[in-house]
User: What shape does this take?
Amino acid sequence: MTQQDNSQTHADASPDATAPTASTGSPMSNASRPENEASKTDVPDSQERKPEIDPSESTSAATGDHPADPPVPMPEAGPAPAASANDSQDSAPPTPQPEPTALAAGTEPTALAAGDEPPAGVTATIAPERFQTGAKSVSLFSGFKTPKMLRWMRVLEEIGGWESTLQQDSDSELKKRSLALRYRAMAGEKLAKLLPEGYALVREAGRRALGMRHYDVQMIGGISLFEGSIAEMQTGEGKTLTATLPLYIHSLVGKGAHLATVNDYLAKRDAEWMMPIFHMLGVSVGIIQTPDDQGSRRKSYSSAITYGTAKEFGFDFLRDRLLLRAQNRIQTEMLGDGGGGFTDSGDKPVMRGMHFCLVDEADSILIDEARTPLIIGSIEDTVRDQIVETYRWASKHASEYELDDHFTIDDDTKQYELTARGRQKVRSLPKSDLVRTMGLVDLYEYTERAVKVHREFLLDRQYVVRPGDKGEDEIVIVDEFTGRLAEGRKWRDGIHQAIEAKEGLDISVPTGQAARITVQDLFLRYNHLAGMTGTAATSAGELRRIYRTPVLRVPTNRPPQRKQLSDRVFGALLTKFRAIVDEVKEIHATGRPILIGTRSIDKSEILSRMLDEIGIEHEVLNANNVEREAEIVSEAGGLGRVTVATNMAGRGTDIKLSDDIVALGGMHVICTELHDAARIDRQLIGRCGRQGDPGSYRQYLSLDDDILKGGLGPDKAERLKSRGENLEGSVDSYAKLFRKAQRKVEKKHFRDRMVLLHHEKERKKMQREIGQDPYLDTPD
Ligand SMILES: Nc1ncnc2c1ncn2[C@@H]1O[C@H](COP(=O)(O)OP(=O)(O)OP(=O)(O)O)[C@@H](O)[C@H]1O
Assistant: This one.
């Protein structure tokens, strides 16, 4: 990577026109280079929680190859005896308690049988026997008689003890109680002491304001979150409602409680959904959205509770830090107790310290997104025109280069390298004056990148072209994990600009980096950190080592009834899609709703055309029709509905079923391909069988699937692909190979994250030694 290229990795995405611009970028190539400049600000970072990492450690322990089995269900224990008759939750007959190991054949296996050890890294799995609120004898599975569990049981009982009293209170009396708790917390009383009453208040407010009384499993999840765990709750078990508990209790001390989620849509949806609970308790809620200006951000952060994305929290931290350094106040205000110098107006930081953060989708944010640091750019590049023209020149000729003749691709690193003939071609191509003045080595790099982009980055698969805010078309990445458009995010290492050149768009040459922070550093700066996820078990080791957060698996409220149908493997995409269409036809005839998940927009559209051909009415949900998302989702569980979706139908998509549909067997989910992370597959599967509903799912695979290339290498993948071209029917015996390939890809991503962490750690250490601010004085 050349000096120029490095500066190109950081592009503009700031919502604030006057503030420095923000983007993502790679620190890898310059991670350990010292800044030549003399020290600027000495920033002690005593407030950071220290991770425990050693990239040399074995990867298998951290990635944990254990499947995240669904936990055993826990019957609602029933609250205080005086529960009112008009409370439907309370008056409902208790759910029968199943034998943990005896689910019906075909349903998913239970998490752990009595006496089993939890998967590597999972601190504990709560078993139903342990949570008989009020029961005299609390029998525990062997191996889990931890004092912590017993203590939580007692807290749950204490919370239950408040219930009858609170139910008799008027709304204003509830609010008064909440205010009284706040005074006590601000006066220094320990939150742990206030927790039973606080959680009981939130539960009562949930019941009144939203008609949702927190289940006992959610209360236990909430207690574990208060104590800094990552709570693993199955999809559809109500993480949104559970989050209200720790957010409320931490908000009482008046230093702000943040909920970090994966995108603006979820931040807004969850905040607005839960707001009535908080308002009933006199607690203010702010929402940060990407386009917000500094003024409205400051207002949102001044609320007791703030919902936003991890990315926005990170950029706000960096922008504040730049501002404070400009004002020379960084030590006293930013690193103080979090409240120093904050007012609601003027040229002030927008945040008021980092007190508590609850990370929703913890594995996605703390692990997947942790591969890319957040970077704010600033420096004007004098050679901008030259760079733009070189991108265009390289793109124009990219398709003239032949594999093996002009360039090679390294199987392991996926790096493109020009051969001697390729380099010769670069030298002989016609060039403008500006391009000619670029160094030869740079021209080779621009060419290699352009060839890579032309071969690997496809319109409507990895990205879409869409009119931007300023009217010009722009590239928007389609997030592989969420299927949504990743607003404001850019590929690093010049890839984004090479794609802009390929599509003939304006090239967004970035402007160097003024400040940056890794996701790990960002969250380790919070005094208190907790997380929720549907699927953390596979990442438990990594989460514990990096963030020091134990993973706790919370049982489901009702027994899961989701059936897994056996995997089906086909030779090629088309035969696979035909088989999928046949299955859709068959199940559609029964009236059950069907959700089909695809890995990309173009594949969702191919399937849609095939369904059109046989006259099956359906909806398509992908990043191209976000506007109709709510409508499509609200109807997806209806009689005879068929929905083809990208990963957008993942997290946050709550598909409700009527009693008729439940009687028919619930929703059927068809997964058309494996994703790079098994977690994403499970998110899609989690759209059916929610809250104990019946449902089924099946995984379809084909020998030309991308996962084989990523996991087994291009040669082996190519061999399998050509073998598949001549296959007619299904070859289901290959199924294991795909899971193996997926595990390999997961391990590779894990290694990348560890290398990034290691470099960052070294860089920060060195910068501190020479008195620099590791967030601001980033070498570029
Ligand atoms: N205590 C409760 N009482 C009644 N309904 C509840 C309760 N908790 C959750 N629900 C319902 O469960 C459904 C799923 O909730 P939510 O979307 O928060 O789940 P989730 O765990 O975030 O799922 P996912 O990970 O799939 O997004 C919602 O329809 C919600 O109304």
